[in-house]
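== Sequence and structure of one protein ==
=== Format: two labelled lines per protein ===
==== Data for this protein ====
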Amino acid sequence: MWRRGCSPMLGDKIMSNQNERIAAFLEKNLDIDSTQAERQRREGLLKDILPTNTDHLAKLYDRNLVRRLWVFVEPYNRRFMLSIVLIVLSSIASVAAPYIVKRAVDDGVAAGDYNTLRFWAVVFIAITLMEFVTNRSRMLIMAVIGTRVIADIRSAMFRHLHTLSLTFHNQYSVGRLMSRLISDVGVLQEFITWSITGVARAVFMLVGIVIVMLAVNWQLALVAFAMLPFMALIANYWRKHARAAYIRTRSILSHINGYLNESISGVRVAKSFTREQRNVEHFNDLNQSHFESLMVAEFLSAAFFPAIEFFSYLTTALIVGVGGYLVLGDALTAGTLIAFVLWVGRFFDPIRELARRLNTFQATMAASERIFGLLDMEADIVDKPNAHQLRNVEGRVVFEDVWFSYKEDEGVLQGVSISAEPGQRIALVGETGAGKSTIIRLLSRFFDVTSGSITIDGHDIRGVTKASLRQQLGIVLQDTFLFSGTLMDNIRYGRLEASDDEVIDAAKAVGAHTFIARLPDGYNTDVGENGVNLSVGQRQIISFARALLADPAILILDEATSSVDTATERLIEVAVDRLMTGRTSFVIAHRLSTIVSADKIVVLDKGRIVEMGSHSELIAQRGRYYNLYTMQWAANHGDSVNQDGTESPIGSIAFSRN
């Protein structure tokens, strides 16, 4: 399966002949096998999600990324420097221990001097304790630094995500964001906590051991170094192939995270369309591919590290053989031979450490590139340097010749001009895609107009701070979002300083108190994730209470009653009327019966205003609005409508409601 499914995945270096042999080993020893259909399905899946060239995905070392990462470490610079000092002391103690053994054997045991032997034994115990204390202290300090740095990075990313516009959030999947905040940041924690000081200690120890061995006996030192060229070749081979395997593993894992998020969020839709089995098969394909990729990487590690051990033992054997011959010829002391045997054992420890950290460095560079790539994304909607606060708003809103497009050459709004006096109710009507929601988004400054202007009380909204603008707006959307927590917390979301009594008054005003009081825990009832413990209508009513409590100057209702049944809609009509009283309101509704009392109805078609006026005025014009209204009335009530409308019940009913 592996040979067939993986050869086209990453191209060039990833599926080498060695990996083919490893794949065969996995099939034989781990029962990795699949049907022909499963193999073909997985091949197609991984061709889509894996890159064909991985050279750019991760460097072993990138100076710019390390420098940017250091910015987060710099506040803890003193502690970090202390850990480096402890590393130096620990390395000195580790290198000195074999030399102390040499002195104890040569000056104490060989000379028959008990006092000298006792002295060096005490020194050895002291140096061992020193190594233990410095190592423990270094690890504790770096654990604290690593944890603090990761917390700072996550906070910086979270803050930055909240500055980015809806354009970014519409294009960037939640799964990818979660992968950055959790998986990639977790890689950085491993790097900062263990890899930096681990590599530093390995380098200090390696250099120290080489210097001491050459100083004590350079001939025997050269014997010990004889295996280094072979180890370098093996290490380089392992690094290249393990790097490719780990890149592949992380690519698949990123898609697993995204698919998990999507599948869990859309579990109700999946169940509705009985997609459970297909979703399970798709996840199993991803999961199996991740397992196989990881097994290749682990197999490479399982071959490499025992090879290091083998060369360590082989070098020790050479040292014992050559050194023993020299001892027998009185050209070398027994203490020196013992010290070299100990040094050889310690010499290969930092080599193993450096080899292990190569992948960590590569993973860190890849994770850092993704994290800083996210942090470098600039918000396209920002406050001007001289932006001022929008305060004491009366609610006079003017759209003046507004043009807007999400993409070039795809105009959404074309020359839209609307004026709303304080307290007026403006209804936006039109078919799907006419531009109704875009007008609302522009008023909230989720996007900036392409040309023209939008003013509130004469202030261009591009010249005021986004925070002060949105504090004046109360938005109730069709898809109500409730946060995990209690009903009390969700109603209070837009005005945190509100008292419990004020929350209850707002709930009573919109008719929410009745059903809340019937709940076992009342206002302390946990709504669940996104209000899953409430019905759609109940969530919608809670959103009305939330908007009312925030007491905005300008109210936006975007299909706010479309998710409410007819009975519930009648119950909250009075509440909605109270909510809009004294506030400039913009209402989008497909149910035209809900906006007949609006002061001004704006009819949109393909981004242009085709009609504007009150309900009675537009009905009298018998234009686009008249057609929409009469068709909807006929569809809902089954009444026939004459072509000229003279005998239709619409006229009397519509005008009487106005």
About this structure: The beta strands are 397-407, 410-420, 425-430, 451-456, 459-460, 473-476, 554-558, 584-588, 600-605, 608-613. The radius of gyration is 36 Å. Residues 614-658 form one domain.
